[in-house]
């Protein structure tokens, strides 16, 4: 995933593991303290192990805003901590990759974040296992107003929990937000028509059914943005894995328009990770008005997805070459060859435990090496190195200048 992000033009940013607790209060409010590992440092200051990366990223950007050329494309790989009940796909300590673009107001950045994360997931082994549900908070707000909701936070909460409750419970939550019974029926019909999501290619037809009479503000703005985004992802070849889902609103209050969740396509269609636009967050930290969009991929849910599909890699990464010393006297020679192969960019190793030749070959097989290079008295007498293909068993002699790739 790191290699993909670099290929897509993202620069790697490192953020601290400990930040001021106020940094998270500014972004997420006082409730964040329920999940944060917070403590007083030796200077009596309230600090926390970071539960997420975005506040630290925002703080860094504010410090650099006057000198950082736009757009800013940052990728971070962070260890995070949250004090919550451990369960499948969620632990108190975990790793996360964040992909963020700052300084671009248009859907070009939204599409770039989705395309980069899709490529990263594909190359990590998840191709065909996931899709993105996409919505716009402004469109969701307008749908709520159209349905009669008076408390939009309660309305968003109801949408976010629709898949987790019964239809009766969903109706009760909608009515708590101010939606009248007749509005509940119309809204339930719309959401049922969307089902698990409307493919990008069909989203225009879906919208045409549910925008008459016209949506109140800011619905038309959100709708126009979604139309532009779906058009762009189609051209990027992502139409098969991007769907419209009006129930996606994301729980964090700082999202401003586009929101998305990645979910597993099979089974319970469970959410894997998410993200969206946070166009006003930089201002909260004292920076200039800066549009921004990003997402965060956690290692726990990705591992579960790959394990269930039988795609989780077994053991350590395979070696290309294991250099075998036929006799103890050639152990240093074997180590020398391993070092030269590594310097040439080839994954190589050699025995450092004085094992017999047969045990070295078993170790090479255990490490899933592609080949073994055997050095010993017979090979030295002929001025060659013996190469053995560890899949087929075929052997050939190589001159020393044939062992390393061309410079």
Task: Tell me about this structure.
The chain folds into two domains: 2-308, Bira Bifunctional Protein, Domain 2 (BirA Bifunctional Protein, domain 2, 2-Layer Sandwich); 321-403, Anticodon-binding domain (Rossmann fold, 3-Layer(aba) Sandwich), CATH 3.40.50.800. It is 39% helix and 21% strand. The protein has 16 helices and 17 strands. The strands form three sheets. It has a nine-stranded mixed beta sheet with strand order 1-5-6-12-11-10-7-9-8. The chain has a five-stranded mixed beta sheet with strand order 14-13-15-16-17, sandwiched between helices. The protein has a three-stranded antiparallel beta sheet with strand order 2-4-3.
Strand content: 15-25%
- The chain-level structural class is alpha+beta
CATH architecture descriptor text of the largest domain: 2-Layer Sandwich
Helix content: 25-40%
Main sheet summary = 9 strands, mixed
Distance between the termini: 28 Å
| Average predicted confidence as pLDDT | 92
CATH topology of the largest domain: BirA Bifunctional Protein, domain 2
Q: Please tell me what the overall shape is.
A: elongated
CATH domain class name of the largest domain:
Alpha Beta
Question: CATH H-level name of the largest domain... which superfamily?
Answer: Bira Bifunctional Protein, Domain 2
Q: Helical region count?
A: 16
Instruction: Tell me how many strands there are.
Output: 17
Q: What is the spatial order of strands in the main beta sheet?
A: 1-5-6-12-11-10-7-9-8
Low-confidence stretches: none
Radius of gyration: 27 Å
Count of distinct structural domains: 2
């Amino acid at each position: 995933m790191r290699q993909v992000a670099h290929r897509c033009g993202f620069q790697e940013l490192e953020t601290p593991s400990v930040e001021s607790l106020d940094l998270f209060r500014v972004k997420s409010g006082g409730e964040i303290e329920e999940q944060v590992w917070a403590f007083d440092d030796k200077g009596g200051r309230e600090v926390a192990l970071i539960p997420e990366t975005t506040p630290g990223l925002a703080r860094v950007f504010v410090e650099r805003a006057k000198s950082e050329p736009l757009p800013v494309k940052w990728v971070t790989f962070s260890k995070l901590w949250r004090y919550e009940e451990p369960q499948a796909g969620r632990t108190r300590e975990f790793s996360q990759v964040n992909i963020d673009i700052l300084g671009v107001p248009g859907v070009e950045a939204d599409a770039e974040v989705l395309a980069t994360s899709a490529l990263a997931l594909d190359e990590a082994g998840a191709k065909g296992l996931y899709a993105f549900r996409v919505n716009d908070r402004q469109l969701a707000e307008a749908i709520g107003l159209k349905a009669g909701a008076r408390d939009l936070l309660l309305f968003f909460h109801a949408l976010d929990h629709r898949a987790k409750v019964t239809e009766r419970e969903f109706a009760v939550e909608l009515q708590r937000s101010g939606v009248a019974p007749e509005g509940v029926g119309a809204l339930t019909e719309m959401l049922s028509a969307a089902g698990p999501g409307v493919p990008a290619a069909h989203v225009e037809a879906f919208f045409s059914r549910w925008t008459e009479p016209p949506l109140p503000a800011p619905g038309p703005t959100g709708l126009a943005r979604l139309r532009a985004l779906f058009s762009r992802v189609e051209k990027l070849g992502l139409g098969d894995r991007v769907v419209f889902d009006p129930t996606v609103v994301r729980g964090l209050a700082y999202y401003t328009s586009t929101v998305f969740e990645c979910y597993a396509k099979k089974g319970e269609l469970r959410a894997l990770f998410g993200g969206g636009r946070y166009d006003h967050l930089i201002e909260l930290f004292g920076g200039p008005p800066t549009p921004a969009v990003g997402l965060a991929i956690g290692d726990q849910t990705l591992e579960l997805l790959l394990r269930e599909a039988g795609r989780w890699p077994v053991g350590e990464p395979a070696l290309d070459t294991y250099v075998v010393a036929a006799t103890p006297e050639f152990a240093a020679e074997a180590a020398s060859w391993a070092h030269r192969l590594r310097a040439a960019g080839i994954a190589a190793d050699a025995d450092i435990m004085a094992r017999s030749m047969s045990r070295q070959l078993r170790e090479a097989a255990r490490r899933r090496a592609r080949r073994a290079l055997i050095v010993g008295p017979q090979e030295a007498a002929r001025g060659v190195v013996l190469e053995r293909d560890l899949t087929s068993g075929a052997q050939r002699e190589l001159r020393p200048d044939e062992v390393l790739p061309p410079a």
